[in-house]
Amino acid sequence: MVAQIIKKQIEQIEYREKKIFWVLFSLFAFLIVSYGILVNDIFSNGVSQQNMEKSIVSLNSDVNTLEFQYLGLKNSITLALAESKGFVSVATDKFAVVNSVQKNLSLSVNEN
């Protein structure tokens, strides 16, 4: 009788140890898989950042090229070119002003 009780207690201890082992093993496996996923994400984010930095450099050079083209075109505009395209020079500046106080919108011309 005492031997059976001791045998049951030993079996219970072995069962608990097995259960603890498998719980710890499962937790360890989960942590290893999570670590692998996180490291993979870190590397993929690093590669994405490098690709974005390259595209930013490329876009900045494109913007610089367009700015130089704009400055070149801006400097080539003269009064003679404007007049040849149909623009005329005005003696006084005129501005259109909207009176926002009234409910009905109307335009008035202010001359400076």
Can you describe this structure?
This protein has 112 residues and is mainly alpha-helical. The chain has one domain (2-111). 72% of the residues lie in helices and 9% in strands. The protein contains 2 helices and 2 strands. The protein has helices at 2-76, 79-84, and strands at 94-98, 107-111. It has a two-stranded antiparallel sheet.
Summary of the model, kept short:
The chain has two helices and two strands; from the N terminus they run H-H-E-E.
Supply the key terms.
112 residues; mainly alpha; 2 helices; 2 strands; 9% strand
**Major sheet description:** 2 strands, antiparallel
The share of residues in extended strands comes to 5-15%
- The overall pLDDT, averaged over residues, is 86
Instruction: Tell me the domain tally.
Output: 1
Q: Count the strands? A: 2
Radius of gyration, in Å, reads 40 Å
Shape: elongated
Helices and strands, in N-to-C order? Answer: HHEE
The number of helical segments is: 2
Q: Report the span from N to C terminus.
A: 118 Å
Structural class: mainly alpha
Strand order of the largest sheet: 1-2
Helicity, in percent? over 70%
Low-confidence blocks of residues: none
What's the structural blueprint in terms of helices and strands?
Blueprint: H1 2-76, H2 79-84, E1 94-98, E2 107-111
